[in-house]
Structures are given as structure tokens and as C-alpha cells.
DNA sequence: GCATGATCATGC
DNA sequence: GCATGATCATGC
């Protein structure tokens, strides 16, 4: 008979039996053999299998494949989720935390307080295990186990943001724009792509256009924040824009308000009203200026931006309004790149570049040069995420890049003149900064860039 | 003026 | 020591 749980405390206490242990440590030899047989059939990577095993062997529950609640306790959801270990020994989440699929047709009739998302996931039993490539589900060690109440254990500020994220996603679906959703347009709660079992593309309300299946997710960076702050009780070394969470505002409102008094002012005026003095010769001068406006310190780490995985980009327009410089991404590894596929339509595999464009959010701080002066003016700030409608253009660049690398034609890599959105260009320290190619030769480090003209247009909108 | 190649400066 | 964000330099 499967076990029945009556309280969340009972569930949490049962979960602890596997803390700092692996499945192999807590089950019988006969069960180990049975699981090893299945691993042979399913392979090591079968997602969700570990979750099923935990339900069965840690909690003694009957495992069903339906999306029914794990326990009989309303809102309590079990999540087994992987960690990765960094060189300095600290743990971060390996992935975002994915919830159940968004039902495009039903959700447009929901409200946050009574939403199916909150109903199902308000209480999260988070079981973090250390993912290691060479191990199977039997040997992953469970590192942290925590019960998180989404409405009580996180700051009001964060709850508000999650609610606004949810409302943003629902509003977009209501407008018949589910196909235009991307994970990058919200802060903590995202709508991430998710493999569908039966249908690849889904119907959505109000339009004939089909949309990719998506699920709610807590973004990876926000999950990292929860691990550090709520599970390990560590103080963050980042500076908060809303000091100590007293201001109950969403991130974009908060940031807009911080910059508003300085829009239209010169760098000199900004420095004197902030009572700071920064060297203009310093290459990150404008970056420091932006940080000072945001947090009052020159710290590069801004809590709200880190939690929401927002990349701050400082750009400087010419006095005429043109943007000269393109936007770089981290340098790529030729060998790793050729093993990637752009996006496999069921969301099982995607390239680093696709992931960057679909999940990242940018905050542009836009300065402009003044004619005949060495002063600059803060023009505006703008949140931006990459429009899904332009992904196909980048896909062309991506595929051509892979073709060129595979055939060793490094001089034919996609140029800015070939594509309106993106190109490939060097991105190393100098010409001696090289990396090994699939051919075994050394080649200068390069990366994908978003074209300056393209970014300029995006900023004007 | 723009595309492309190359490098700087900082901070982790 | 290196990755990264940002910018510089050159040549057409």
C-alpha cells in the first residue's frame, strides 16, 4: 500500500532520509538490479526518471504518469532538480526549474490568486542533487532539501515580480501572441519551451497561428539566488537597488525610477549630483556611472539584475544617433559549436546561442555623444529581449557558421554584410589568442555579434 | 561612413 | 590568467 501523508512537515521529514545520500544508499540490492536494467533500456539521460524513483523509493508513493499531485496535500509539489559544482566548490543550479505545461486556452480565464500555477506549485519540496556526467540516477548525491512556500518564504518584492511575470505571460497569450513568447521577456518566472509528447505545436486562443508548447519555469539565475539566500542562508555580495526589499516595486519600475532623474543630463552633471568622480579615461567609465546611478556604489553586482539574469549593456550613440559598435557574445569554442543543433523543435536540444537569445534579457543604458564636446548625455534606458520573429535570421548565420567550421573555411564565416541581424567576428585579446578547431589547428577566438544597425533599430522602437 | 579585423581594460 | 564588455584601427 502506498503511504499517505497528512502534513508538509511529514513529507519534509521523509525527504531527509536521502539527504547527503544517493538512491543506491537507501534501497535494496534487488531494487538496484531492477533499476540498473531499466537504465540500460532508457539510457542515462531520461529526464524525469529520477523524480519517479524518488517518489517510489523515498516517499513510497504510487508513481503515475499523469500530472496529478504528488501528495494529497494541496499545492505541494515535489521537484528533484540538478546542481552543478564549480571550481571554488560552490553549487549552482544546472537548469531552470520547470513546472507543468501552460494550457493556452485555459489560462486566459485565470487570475493569479486562484491560478492553476499557484494551486499546484505554491509549496515546493525542492530536492537538489549533484549532477555528474559519469554517474547514473542511482548515484547522484542529494545535497539540499528544502520546503519553499512561494507566498511566504520569499520577499514581497520578489512575489510581486513573479506575479507580474505571470500576468505578462497571460496577457500575451490573451492577445493571441503565444507564438511570440520568449523566456527572456520576464524576470523571475519564465515561459520556457518544453517538449510535447504528442503534438509539437499547439493551438492558442484568438488566432490560427500555432505556438510552441511552453511551461512556466523559475529561471536558473533566480533559482541560484534561492539556493544561496534561502537554502544556504548566505548574504549576497551584490548591491540591491531596492535596499533591503523595502520598496515593493517591480524591477523595471525600480530601474526606470533610478535612471529618470539623470536622463538628459551629461556625464559631468550626473557625477556632480551623485557627488562622485570617475576617471573618464577608464574604459568602463560609463559602466561605473550606470552602476552608481543604480545602487549608489560602483559595484558591478546588482542584486536585481543578477537574480533576473538581466545583462546590462552600455552603448554610446554618435551625436547623429547612429550606433557604431555591434554587440558581442562570449567567444565560442569551435569544437563544442559544431556538436550543437540550433533548436530541435521539441526543445530537447538547443544551441548556446539560441538559449542566450530566447532566455536573456538586456538592459540598455544609452548615452549619446555631443557634437564638438567630449561630454556625453544619458539619453534613455531600455529593456529589450530578442524578438522571436528574428530567430530564423540568426539561425541562418548559426548554420552557416557550423558549415564553415566543419569544412575548415574560417575565412568564409558569416559577415555583417550578409545578414541583417547577426554576424561572426573575432573576439579574443589579440591575434595570438587562439583556440583549437575540429581540424586540430589553432584559430583566433571568435563570437557571434548582433549587428550595430540592428541594435540601433531595436533601441529606437 | 561603414565593414571588418583587432585589441584594450577590468574584474573575477 | 583569462573571459568579457567595450572600443579602437584600418582600409575600402
Walkthrough of the structure:
The protein is an alpha+beta fold and 461 residues long. It folds into 3 domains: 8-231, 3-Layer(aba) Sandwich (ECO RV Endonuclease, Chain A), CATH 3.40.600.10; 236-308, no CATH class; 325-366 and 381-461, no CATH class. It has helices at residues 8-15, 23-26, 29-42, 49-57, 104-107, 116-121, 156-174, 220-231, 251-259, 267-274, 285-295, 303-307, 334-337, 352-359, 391-406, 452-460; strands at 76-85, 91-93, 97-101, 123-130, 141-149, 189-193, 202-204, 207-211, 214-218, 310-317, 327-328, 361-369, 376-384, 422-426, 434-436, 442-444, 446-450. Strands 2-1-4-5 form a 4-stranded mixed sheet, with helices on both faces. It has a 3-stranded antiparallel sheet with strand order 3-9-6. Strands 10-12-13 form a 3-stranded mixed sheet. A hairpin with a 6-residue loop joins strand 12 and strand 13 (376-384). Helix 10 (267-274) packs across helix 11 (285-295). The structure holds a DNA duplex (12 and 12 nucleotides).
Topology summary:
Elements: H1 8-15, H2 23-26, H3 29-42, H4 49-57, E1 76-85, E2 91-93, E3 97-101, H5 104-107, H6 116-121, E4 123-130, E5 141-149, H7 156-174, E6 189-193, E7 202-204, E8 207-211, E9 214-218, H8 220-231, H9 251-259, H10 267-274, H11 285-295, H12 303-307, E10 310-317, E11 327-328, H13 334-337, H14 352-359, E12 361-369, E13 376-384, H15 391-406, E14 422-426, E15 434-436, E16 442-444, E17 446-450, H16 452-460
Parallel strand pairs: 1-4, 10-12
Antiparallel strand pairs: 1-2, 3-9, 4-5, 6-9, 7-8, 11-17, 12-13, 14-17, 15-16
Helix pairs in contact: 10-11
The protein binds a DNA duplex (12 and 12 nucleotides) through strand 10, strand 11 and strand 14.
Amino acid at each position: 500500500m502506498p503511504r499517505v501523508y497528512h502534513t508538509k512537515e511529514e513529507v519534509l521529514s521523509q525527504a531527509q532520509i536521502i539527504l547527503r545520500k544517493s538512491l543506491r544508499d537507501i534501497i535494496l540490492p534487488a531494487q538496484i538490479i531492477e533499476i540498473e536494467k531499466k537504465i540500460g533500456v532508457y539510457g542515462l539521460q531520461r529526464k524525469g526518471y529520477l523524480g519517479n524513483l524518488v517518489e517510489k523509493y523515498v516517499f513510497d508513493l504510487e508513481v503515475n504518469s499523469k500530472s496529478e499531485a504528488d501528495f494529497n496535500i494541496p499545492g505541494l509539489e515535489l521537484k528533484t532538480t540538478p546542481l552543478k559544482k564549480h571550481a571554488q566548490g560552490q553549487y549552482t543550479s544546472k537548469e531552470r526549474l520547470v513546472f507543468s505545461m501552460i494550457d493556452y486556452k485555459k489560462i486566459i480565464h485565470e487570475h493569479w490568486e486562484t491560478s492553476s500555477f499557484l494551486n499546484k506549485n505554491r509549496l515546493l519540496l525542492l530536492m537538489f542533487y549533484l549532477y555528474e556526467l559519469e554517474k547514473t540516477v542511482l548515484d547522484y548525491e542529494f545535497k539540499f532539501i528544502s520546503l519553499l512556500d512561494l507566498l511566504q518564504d520569499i520577499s514581497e518584492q520578489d512575489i510581486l515580480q513573479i506575479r507580474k511575470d505571470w500576468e505578462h505571460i497571460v496577457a500575451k497569450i490573451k492577445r493571441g501572441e503565444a507564438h511570440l513568447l520568449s523566456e527572456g521577456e520576464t524576470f523571475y518566472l519564465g515561459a520556457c519551451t518544453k517538449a510535447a509528447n504528442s503534438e509539437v505545436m499547439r493551438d492558442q486562443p484568438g488566432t490560427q497561428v500555432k505556438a510552441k508548447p511552453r511551461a512556466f519555469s523559475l529561471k536558473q539565475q533566480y533559482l541560484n539566488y534561492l539556493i544561496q539566500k534561502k537554502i544556504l542562508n548566505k548574504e549576497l555580495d551584490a548591491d540591491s537597488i531596492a535596499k533591503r526589499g523595502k520598496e515593493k516595486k517591480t524591477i523595471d519600475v525600480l530601474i526606470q525610477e533610478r535612471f529618470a532623474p539623470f536622463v538628459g543630463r551629461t556625464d559631468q552633471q550626473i557625477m556632480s549630483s551623485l557627488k562622485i568622480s570617475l576617471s573618464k579615461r577608464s574604459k568602463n567609465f560609463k559602466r561605473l556611472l550606470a552602476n552608481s546611478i543604480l545602487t549608489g556604489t560602483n559595484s558591478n553586482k546588482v542584486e536585481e539584475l543578477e537574480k533576473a539574469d538581466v545583462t546590462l549593456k552600455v552603448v554610446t550613440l554618435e551625436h547623429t544617433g547612429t550606433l557604431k559598435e555591434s554587440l558581442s557574445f562570449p567567444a565560442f569554442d569551435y569544437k563544442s559549436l559544431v556538436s550543437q543543433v540550433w533548436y530541435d523543435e521539441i526543445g530537447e536540444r538547443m544551441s548556446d546561442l539560441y538559449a542566450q537569445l530566447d532566455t536573456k534579457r538586456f538592459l540598455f543604458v544609452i548615452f549619446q555623444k555631443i557634437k564638438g564636446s567630449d561630454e556625453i548625455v544619458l539619453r534613455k534606458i531600455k529593456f529589450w529581449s530578442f524578438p522571436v520573429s528574428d530567430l530564423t535570421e540568426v539561425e541562418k548565420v548559426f548554420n552557416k557558421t557550423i558549415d564553415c567550421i566543419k569544412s575548415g573555411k574560417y575565412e568564409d564565416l558569416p559577415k555583417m554584410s550578409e545578414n541583417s541581424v547577426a554576424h561572426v567576428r573575432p573576439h579574443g585579446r589579440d591575434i595570438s589568442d587562439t583556440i583549437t578547431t575540429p581540424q586540430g589547428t589553432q584559430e583566433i577566438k571568435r563570437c557571434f555579434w548582433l549587428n550595430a544597425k540592428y541594435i540601433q533599430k531595436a533601441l529606437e522602437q
